[in-house]
Write a structure and sequence with these properties.
alpha+beta, FAD/NAD(P)-binding domain, 7-stranded mixed beta sheet, 6-stranded mixed beta sheet
C-alpha cells in the first residue's frame, strides 16, 4: 500500500455523487485537504434517482442544511413510502412504508401479534397499524414535535447537485471544467498520479474519487477493478426517463407500477413529475417500451424519453489503490427501492470515517470494500424479492423471475419468514425488519406460525392491544394537514 499522506483529493465527475462527495469532504474534513472536482458541462448526468430513503436526512443534518431551503432549491416533496402496484398479481397493490408498524416486544415484532389476531379474526389490514402508511394513503403529512413520522424526499437530482455544489465551493472546492482524456498511473505501483484533460491541463492528486458514471473511467478503465454481474437475478437492462407536467397535487409516496416486462416509476415533485420505465430488452423492444411509458403517464411530456442502458451488479473493488468509486461507477442496482443516493451517501460516510490522512493501508481498503459489498448484497436481495415472490404468470418475463434461482442469502430469509415469521436484520442491511415484513407479506408470503411469546397475552388483552394501536394511528393521521398544504406552507419553491 501507499504510505504517502493524503492532502490532494481529485473528484472525477460531478452530478449527485461528485458534488455530494465534494460537499461532505470539504465541510467536514476539508480544512486539511485540497479538493478539486473535474467535470464537463457537455456530459449530462443520468439523473434517474429522484426518490430517496430516510437515510438522506443524516447527511443533510451533518452538512447543516436547513430543510426548507433544501426542498425549495430541489423542488422537493415528502415521501412516506412506495406503493407497489401489480407486483404480486395484476390489480393488487400494497405500500412499503418507512414507518414502524405497531409495537413489538423484545422477542417478537408486532407482526407476530398481528398474525395471532388474524387467526382469531380480530386483526385489521396490517397497514392500519402504521401512521406513515395511513398518511400516505390519505395524502397527509407534517413534521411534528411529538410523534415524528419517518420520511424521505422526492427531489430533482439535477437541482440537488447544483445545491451541493454551492456548499462545496463555499468550503473551498475548486471546480475544473473539462473532459478527461487520459488517466495517468505510476508505472511502479499502478496508483493514479493525475488526470489529463482534453485541454492539455494535468490535474494531480493523492486520492481520486471516481464519479464518472457507467463509464467508470478510473476504477475500471484505468485500474481494471472487475465487476460482479447480477443480471441473471435482475434481468432488466434498460430504462427510459421522461418528465411530465403535474396534473394533480403531489402525493407523499412514490408509485412503482409493474408492467409486462419491468416496472414504471412515478415521482411527484413540486413543479413536475418524474416518470420512467425499467425493462428487460430481452423481453421487450425499445420502441414498445417507449410506447408503454408514454401511454401510461398522466401529464403532458416536458422532455423526450431518454434511454439509459445498464448492467446490474457491483464493482469487485469499490476502493482500489488510491481510487474510490461512488455512484454509478461503483455499480448499479435498479432504483426500485430508491437506494441510489443512499449508496452514494454510504460510500461517503465510510470514507469520512476511514479517511487515510496518513496514507492508504490494506486493512482500511479491505474494511471499506467489505462494508460496502455486504450492504449492496442486502439491497440486491431485497430488490430480487419483489421480482421472485410473485403470482404473475402472464408474460415470459414474470415466469423467468418467478422460476429463477436466487441467492442463498435471500432464500434463507424467505424460508425463515414463511416457516417461523422471523426476520433477523443483518448489521449492514439498510432496510429495517418492518420493510422486509411489509414487502414479503405484500408479495404474498404469510408466515405459517407466530412466536409463542404472543400467547402470554390473553385474547382480551390482544384485542385491546391491537385496537389501541390502530386507534392511535388513526388519531395521529386525522390531525395532519394535507401533504400539499404542508409543502405550500413549509417549503414552497419559487418559480
Amino acid at each position: 500500500m501507499q504510505n504517502k499522506s493524503i492532502k490532494r483529493v481529485v473528484i472525477a465527475g460531478g452530478g449527485t455523487a461528485g458534488w455530494m462527495a465534494a460537499a461532505a469532504l470539504s465541510k467536514l474534513i476539508g480544512k486539511q485537504l485540497d479538493i478539486a472536482l473535474v467535470e464537463s458541462d457537455d456530459i449530462p448526468t443520468v439523473g434517474v434517482g429522484e426518490a430517496t430513503i430516510p437515510t438522506i436526512l443524516t447527511i443533510n443534518r451533518l452538512l447543516q442544511i436547513p430543510e426548507p431551503e433544501f426542498l425549495q432549491a430541489t423542488q422537493g416533496t415528502f415521501k412516506l413510502g412506495i406503493e407497489f402496484e401489480n407486483w404480486r398479481k395484476q390489480g393488487h397493490r400494497y405500500i412499503h412504508s418507512f414507518g414502524d408498524t405497531g409495537q413489538g416486544c423484545w422477542a417478537a415484532g408486532f407482526h407476530h401479534f398481528w398474525l395471532k389476531g388474524l387467526e382469531q379474526g380480530i386483526s385489521s389490514d396490517y397497514g392500519e397499524y402504521c401512521p406513515e402508511l395511513k398518511a400516505a394513503e390519505q395524502s397527509k403529512f407534517a413534521i411534528q414535535s411529538q410523534k415524528k413520522l419517518n420520511y424521505a424526499y422526492h427531489l430533482d437530482a439535477g437541482l440537488y447537485g447544483r445545491f451541493l455544489r454551492k456548499i462545496a465551493e463555499q468550503h473551498g472546492v475548486r471546480r475544473i471544467e473539462g473532459k478527461i482524456s487520459d488517466v495517468q498511473c505510476n508505472t511502479d505501483d499502478g496508483y493514479i498520479q493525475s488526470l489529463r484533460l482534453e485541454s492539455g491541463q494535468v490535474v494531480e492528486g493523492d486520492l481520486f474519487i471516481d464519479c464518472t458514471g457507467f463509464r467508470a473511467l478510473l476504477i475500471e478503465q484505468a485500474l481494471e477493478s472487475g465487476f460482479d454481474d447480477w443480471s441473471h437475478w435482475l434481468p432488466c437492462d434498460s430504462a427510459l426517463a421522461v418528465q411530465t407536467e403535474s396534473v394533480g397535487e403531489a402525493v407523499p409516496y412514490t408509485r412503482s407500477i409493474a408492467r409486462c416486462s419491468g416496472w414504471q416509476w412515478r415521482i411527484p415533485l413540486q413543479h413536475r413529475v418524474g416518470n420512467g420505465f425499467v425493462y428487460s430488452s430481452k423481453y421487450l423492444s425499445d420502441d414498445k417500451a417507449e410506447q408503454i411509458l408514454l401511454d401510461n403517464v398522466e401529464g403532458a411530456p416536458i422532455t423526450k424519453p431518454r434511454p439509459i442502458k445498464f448492467r446490474t451488479g457491483q464493482r469487485k473493488q469499490y476502493w482500489n489503490k488510491n481510487c474510490i468509486a461512488l455512484g454509478l461507477s461503483s455499480g448499479f442496482i435498479e432504483p426500485l427501492e430508491s437506494t441510489s443516493i443512499h449508496l452514494i451517501q454510504n460510500g461517503i460516510m465510510w470514507l469520512l470515517l476511514m479517511f487515510p490522512f496518513q496514507g492508504i493501508t490494506k486493512s482500511v481498503v479491505n474494511e471499506y470494500n467489505e462494508k460496502l459489498r455486504r450492504e449492496a448484497d442486502c439491497i440486491r436481495d431485497f430488490i430480487i424479492l419483489h421480482y421472485h415472490v410473485t403470482e404473475r404468470d402472464d408474460t415470459d418475463f414474470w415466469n423467468y423471475c418467478r422460476e429463477m434461482s436466487i441467492p442463498d442469502s435471500l432464500q434463507h430469509r424467505i424460508d425463515l419468514f414463511r416457516e417461523t415469521g422471523r426476520v433477523f436484520k443483518p448489521q449492514d442491511d439498510v432496510f429495517a425488519e418492518n420493510s422486509w415484513v411489509q414487502v414479503m407479506m405484500g408479495q404474498g408470503i404469510t408466515p405459517e406460525q407466530y412466536h409463542p411469546i404472543v400467547d402470554m397475552m390473553s385474547d382480551v388483552e390482544l384485542k385491546s392491544f391491537l385496537q389501541t394501536i390502530e386507534n392511535n394511528a388513526k388519531s395521529l393521521v386525522s390531525q395532519l394537514p394535507s401533504h400539499a398544504d404542508f409543502v405550500a406552507h413549509y417549503c414552497k419553491a419559487v418559480g
